[in-house]
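Re: 6-hydroxyuridine-5'-phosphate structure - here you go.
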Amino acid sequence: KPKVLGYRERAKLCSNPITQRLFEIMEKKRTNLALSADLTDSKQLLQLIDKTGPYICIVKTHIDILEDFSEDFIEKLSQLASKHEFLIFEDRKFADIGNTVVHQFSGGVYHISNWAHIINAHTVPGAGVIQGLKMVKTQNGCGCLLIAEMSSAGNLATGDYTQATVKMAEENKDFVIGFISVSNLSPDPELVHMTPGVQLECGRDDLGQQYLTPSEVITRRGSDVIIVGRGIYQAPDPAEAARQFQVAGYDAFVARLTE
Ligand code: BMP
């Protein structure tokens, strides 16, 4: 069984500055919690992020669900990222040919390459999607997660598709920093695993989302980061909920370290 490494050791082993920074933040703030910030009003979203900032290592955005997007929102989000020390992950799920994703990543209304530290991509187009994204000049030296598995019922990212995705990650480590997955797929300490579909109790929603607990995800399945949306922002006290997920996620990691 491979030895489980602490966040500081992982940071030292990472050659990519984004993963290095991520593990340093995780070590310093004692958190493996990513907030899935899926509110549609920018003022409410910024308030949520400011309140939960102390407990998280990443804010994951869906920038295209904001009703009132503006440059000012990005400015304020970036200020909060510096204030609370977290990375910004735009969950854009690029999934087209290389030439198209170049424009989707750098251009349009959102100019994602100017502000995101982390992006992600489906591998259904083949390696061209990675080649395209990699060509774009970025502000923060952006790293890319490949969607190797999904949390939703009946999804097709399984078996050979998942294995081919792992291979693509291993072959593109200058830009690919890890996976969206619901299990540990690679023993390489430079590749990070992030898992959505997390609540404090197992269960599902009405549209196919399936929830696992922090201990199932981190201790048993060996993922690195829990991604939590409604479990935090729909709670009566989101800051308190974030604190509970921080503790649950971190305790689950300590349990894996010491088991
Ligand atoms: P929630 O915790 O509210 O179910 O939100 C999960 C978040 O993670 C959503 O933003 C969703 O888009 C994202 N996500 C997911 O749920 N499953 C996946 O397989 C991949 C995702 O990006």
